[in-house]
C-alpha cells in the first residue's frame, strides 16, 4: 500500500514552539525607535502588545512552551495532515517525491489561527478588552476574529479595500465570528483620512491598514494591536507546522531535500521551514529552502535590505528588512495576503546570510499551478498558496529534466473556498501579470528613512 497521508495523534502535537533566534550565527539587526534612532526596549512596545509577546519577540531560548489553554484549542484541528502528492507526481511525470503540509483544515481555513489563538490568549491574560488589526485577503482577520470569540475579546479589523470588495464572504466570516470589519483606507482614522484626501480612489494596502489599526490601538487604553505576520513572535507561533512536519517526514521514512514556501510577510514560510533550517544551522541535516513571492510585490527579489517602517503613516518602529518602501501600493492581485511591502526581519536576515533563496512568480503561472494541483489532488488552494505550488512544480520539473529524485516539501497554507471569484476571473482570462520598471522600483524605495 502506498501511503498518501501521514497523521499524528493529538498527544503527538508539539508542546513548545521553536525559536530560530537560538541558532542564528549572528543576531538580526536591532529594532530602532523612529524618533531617536536608538534600539527600542520592551516599554516602547508596551502600548501596542502584551508583555508576554514582547518578551517572545526578543527571546533567544530555543523552545518556548505552548500554554495548555492554547494547546487545547489547537487540538480542534492540530496536528494537521502531511500528504504525499502521488497524483501530482504522476501528472507531472516526475521522479520527485512531493509532500505538502495542509493547513486548510483549521476552522478559519488557513495557518493563521496558530498565532491568532496564541495572541488572543496572551492579551486576555493581561486583561485586554479589544484587539485591533489589519487584514489583506482576510485569512488573518477571520482567524483573529475566531480567536477573539474563543477568549471573549472584541476584534476590529481594517481590511484592505480591494480585498474588502473582492472577498465579501471573508468579510461575512469575520462578522459571523463577531468582529467589526472596516474597508481601509477609511474615514475612521487620521491616517485613513489623509490617504483618502490625496487618493480618493485608493485601493488600499497592508501598510495603510496597519497605520489605521496601530493608530486606533495606541489611543485606546483597553486595546492592543495584533499583527498576523512579520514579527518574531508571530513566526515563532507558526513553527508548530514545521515541528509536526519533522515528525511526519520521519513517519514517511524521508527528509526534504527542498522546502518551498509562499512568502508575503513570512509567517507560513517560517512555520514550515524554521525547524528544518534550525537543523541546518546546527549542522545536523542540510536542506535547500526556497521562498516564493509574487512578482507584483517582490520585496526579497527586487527590494532593498534596509531599515524601514512597517506601515505607510510611519507609526511603527524601524526594522531592517527587505522592503519595497513603506509608500509602496501593490496592484490588486488576488493573493492579498502576499501584498506587503516588507519581509519579516528574520526571513530577511536568513536571506542575507545565504541560508535561504528567493524567487518571484507571476500571477498567471501561480493560478495555472493551482488548477493543476486541484485537478490532481482535489484541494483548491488559496491564491497565496498557489505560489508555493508553483515553486514546488518548478522544482519537480527540474528533477524530471535532471533525472533525479528529490524530496520536495511545501506548505499548503490555506484553501481557496473564499477565493473562487479569483479562479472565475482566471478561467475567464481576466487576470494578468504585472511587470515593474526599474524606475518604478526606484521611486518606491526613494522614501526610505535615513538610518546611520
TrEMBL record:
CDD domains: Trp-synth_B. The keyword Nucleus does not apply. Tetramer of two alpha and two beta chains. Keywords: Amino-acid biosynthesis, Aromatic amino acid biosynthesis, Lyase, Pyridoxal phosphate, Tryptophan biosynthesis. It comes from Roseiflexus castenholzii (strain DSM 13941 / HLO8). Coiled coil: none annotated. It catalyses: (1S,2R)-1-C-(indol-3-yl)glycerol 3-phosphate + L-serine = D-glyceraldehyde 3-phosphate + L-tryptophan + H2O. InterPro entries: Trp_synth_b-like, Trp_synth_b_CS, Trp_synth_beta, Trp_synth_beta/beta-like, TrpB-like_PALP, TrpB-like_PALP_sf. One of its GO terms (cellular component) is cytoplasm. Residues 76-414 form the Tryptophan synthase beta chain-like PALP domain. The beta subunit is responsible for the synthesis of L-tryptophan from indole and L-serine. GO terms for molecular function: L-serine hydro-lyase (adding indole, L-tryptophan-forming) activity; pyridoxal phosphate binding; tryptophan synthase activity. Belongs to the TrpB family. Its EC number is 4.2.1.20. The keyword ATP-binding does not apply. This is Tryptophan synthase beta chain. The modification N6-(pyridoxal phosphate)lysine is found at residue 112. Pathway: Amino-acid biosynthesis; L-tryptophan biosynthesis; L-tryptophan from chorismate: step 5/5. Pfam families: PALP. Its cofactor is pyridoxal 5'-phosphate.
Amino acid at each position: 500500500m502506498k501511503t498518501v497521508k501521514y497523521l499524528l495523534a493529538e498527544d503527538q502535537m508539539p508542546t513548545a514552539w521553536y525559536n530560530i533566534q537560538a541558532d542564528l550565527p549572528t543576531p538580526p539587526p536591532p529594532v530602532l525607535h523612529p524618533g531617536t534612532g536608538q534600539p527600542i526596549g520592551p516599554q516602547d512596545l508596551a502600548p501596542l502588545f502584551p508583555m508576554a509577546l514582547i518578551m517572545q519577540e526578543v527571546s533567544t531560548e530555543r523552545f518556548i512552551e505552548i500554554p495548555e489553554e492554547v494547546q487545547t484549542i489547537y487540538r480542534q484541528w492540530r496536528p494537521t495532515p502531511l500528504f504525499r502528492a502521488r497524483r501530482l507526481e504522476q501528472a507531472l511525470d516526475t521522479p520527485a517525491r512531493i509532500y505538502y503540509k495542509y493547513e486548510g483544515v483549521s476552522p478559519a481555513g488557513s495557518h493563521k489561527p496558530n498565532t491568532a489563538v496564541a495572541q488572543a490568549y496572551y492579551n486576555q491574560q493581561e486583561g485586554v478588552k479589544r484587539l485591533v488589526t489589519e487584514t489583506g485577503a482576510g485569512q488573518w482577520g477571520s482567524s483573529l476574529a475566531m480567536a477573539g470569540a474563543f477568549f471573549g475579546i472584541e476584534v476590529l479589523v481594517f481590511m484592505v479595500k480591494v480585498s474588502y470588495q473582492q472577498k465579501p464572504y471573508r468579510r461575512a466570516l469575520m462578522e459571523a465570528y463577531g468582529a467589526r470589519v472596516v474597508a481601509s483606507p477609511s474615514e475612521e482614522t487620521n491616517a485613513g483620512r489623509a490617504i483618502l484626501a490625496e487618493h480618493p480612489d485608493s485601493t488600499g494596502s497592508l501598510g495603510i491598514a496597519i497605520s489605521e489599526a496601530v493608530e486606533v490601538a495606541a489611543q485606546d487604553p483597553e486595546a492592543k494591536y495584533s499583527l498576523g505576520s512579520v514579527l518574531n513572535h508571530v513566526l515563532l507561533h507558526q513553527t508548530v507546522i514545521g515541528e509536526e512536519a519533522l515528525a511526519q517526514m520521519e513517519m514517511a521514512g524521508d527528509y526534504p531535500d527542498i522546502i518551498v514556501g509562499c512568502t508575503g510577510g513570512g509567517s507560513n514560510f517560517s512555520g514550515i521551514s524554521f525547524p528544518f533550517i534550525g537543523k541546518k544551522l546546527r549542522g545536523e541535516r542540510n536542506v535547500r529552502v526556497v521562498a516564493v513571492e509574487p512578482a507584483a510585490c517582490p520585496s526579497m527579489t527586487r527590494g532593498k535590505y534596509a531599515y524601514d517602517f512597517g506601515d505607510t503613516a510611519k507609526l511603527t518602529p524601524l526594522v531592517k528588512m527587505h522592503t519595497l518602501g513603506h509608500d509602496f501600493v501593490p496592484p490588486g492581485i488576488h493573493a492579498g495576503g502576499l501584498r506587503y511591502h516588507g519581509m519579516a526581519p528574520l526571513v530577511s536576515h536568513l536571506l542575507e546570510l545565504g541560508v535561504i533563496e528567493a524567487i518571484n512568480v507571476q500571477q498567471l503561472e501561480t493560478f495555472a499551478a493551482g488548477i493543476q494541483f486541484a485537478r490532481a489532488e482535489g484541494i483548491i488552494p488559496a491564491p497565496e498558496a498557489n505560489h508555493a505550488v508553483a515553486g514546488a512544480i518548478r522544482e519537480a520539473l527540474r528533477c524530471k529534466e535532471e533525472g533525479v529524485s528529490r524530496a520536495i516539501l511545501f506548505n499548503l497554507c490555506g484553501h481557496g473556498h473564499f477565493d473562487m471569484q479569483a479562479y472565475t476571473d482566471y478561467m475567464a482570462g481576466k487576470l494578468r501579470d504585472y511587470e515593474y520598471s526599474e524606475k518604478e522600483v526606484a521611486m518606491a524605495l526613494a522614501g526610505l528613512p535615513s538610518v546611520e
